[in-house]
Amino acid sequence: MYDRNHLAHAISCASDGRHAATFLTDARNGRVITYGDFWANAERMAAALVALGVRPGDRVAVQAPKEPAMLELYVGTVLAGGVFLPLNTAYTPDEVAYFLGDAAPHVFVCDPTTQKALETVARNARVVQVLTLGMDEAGTLVSARDEQAPGFQAVARDAQDLAAILYTSGTTGRSKGAMLTHRALASNSETLRDYWRFTEQDVLIHALPIFHTHGLFVATNVTLMAGGAAIFMPGFDAGAVIEAMPNATALMGVPTFYTRLLKDDRLANASRNMRLFISGSAPLLADTHAKWRTVTGHAILERYGMTETNMNTSNPYEGDRRAGTVGLPLPGVEVKVCDPKTGEELPTGEIGVLEVRGDNVFAGYWQMPEKTAEELRANGWFITGDLATIDAEGYVTIVGRGKDLIITGGFNVYPKEVEGVIDDLPGVVESAVIGVPHDDFGEAVVAVVVLESETVLDEAGILAGISKRLAKFKQPKRVLVVEALPRNTMGKVQKNIMRADYAALFQG
Predict the structure, then answer these.
(1) For residue 392, how far is the Cα from the chain centroid?
(2) Considering only CA atoms, which of 370, 333, 338 is closest in space to residue 351?
(3) Which residues face 166 on adjacent strands?
(4) Strands 301-306 and 411-413, sheet pairing
């Protein structure tokens, strides 16, 4: 048992004395990892890191495949008093160079297949130790772990000490390192465990990446904190998830998971044993909600969080799960909608910038005191940058990002409103509405639309279909039909890419 201020204490209590209970089942090979095995290896990882010179507060960065050993490294870093820094496996060496240079980790773990390129990057960033972790847990990290004995005693940490740094996606400007404390991660995971009713009887299908809040701090921490089990998949494969459902009780995913699963005729029968489907990281279309309920009998539970805050709101476990909303504030989390210019709280139902406060909120941006002061108020309120409304019953609806707001001819246009009308048209799969430069209007509204394969709908048909439902200034000046919207690894539509791609649409 660890110090109560320690994240390791919070995530170990449920499995204390249950060493033979299953924690992970590796979906690729059927290997079962018990809680006893997992914690022994995490302690070995901690001992290995200390032997490599990691001291309290040192960063341990990793860009490696999704393997059980990466979770052991995460917990081992926390036990050693270090700060875990997972990096997206899609980042190029140039991008990794920025993160290593900014965070200055003591240890960097990379895939053996990228070691040659990244060792040079790490050396230039003055990283002291470079280890490797590849598929099937190949590499020097596991060798270093196995040289140590279990039984490592956790380095004392305070609740406000850092446990992890996660970099924001950096859609505008420099990526920012969100500093997450032991208290922020432990308190949020405990809240989610209770709110979503996770127990040691649960088996989670874990198909999310573990370099992101959703897969690492929500899926993994909640499972550990409940003492439950997880079917650990290297990534999302609809067929594999369907096959796992009869032996599972819960799935956490992004909208793409659910749209792809709906295409499998086995879904209705396979989902009978499941109790909970959770979606986040990007908005879920109302049509997907409706189809899922029709096919499975389940209402998907949608929630809302951020890198800087973990989870903020959730539709209720018991009660009305409202499509199009992200639910109610979680226990211990305060939310309010404010005027973006004055910071004053706005009346119920009005659109403004969402602010949140609670133990879940981060400690600021790594080495960016000015940016921290801009977005994290002295009284603890974090300015999310998301435009939202809160209705009379407390349900939060995210309208869009503040930077996505379109000002055309002096009028404000909220993209989600236009997207909702377009998405309702027969033959439309999904849409994204952006603003691009326009000599006359400042910005022009442009819709980028994905259509069903056999639809006859075109630009003129879409514009005709929405003309009576939207004011003229809200209607797109162009509708562009594409095969797919650009998305990041968590399924979020990358409007910044579309704004760049179509920036010259009305120029010249």
Answers:
(1) 28
(2) 338
(3) 178
(4) unpaired
389-400 per-position pLDDT tens digit:
999 999 999 987
Which of 220, 180, 223 lies closest to 360, judged by CA?
A: 180
User: pTM of this prediction?
Assistant: 0.85
All residues at 6 or more sequence positions from 462 whose CB lies less than 8 Å from its CB, including other chains: 422, 425, 428, 447, 449, 479
SS3 238: helix
Enter the tokens of residue 506: 């009305």
Amino acid identity for residue 431 in this structure: S
3-state secondary structure 346-374: CCCCCCEEEEEECCCCCCCECCCHHHHHH
For residues 332 and 498, give the distance between their C-alpha atoms in angstroms, rounded to a whole number.
37
pLDDT tens per residue, range 433-490: 999 988 777 789 999 999 998 888 999 999 999 988 888 889 999 999 999 999 887 7
Cβ pair 346, 372 in contact under 8 A: no
Rg of the chain in Å (alpha carbons) = 23
* C-alpha span between 204 and 241 (Å, rounded): 11
Q: What is the dihedral of CA 54, 60, 65, 68, to 10 degrees?
A: 60
Segment 416-435, tens digit of pLDDT? 889 989 999 999 999 999 99
Handedness of CA 146, 148, 151, 157 (dihedral sign): negative
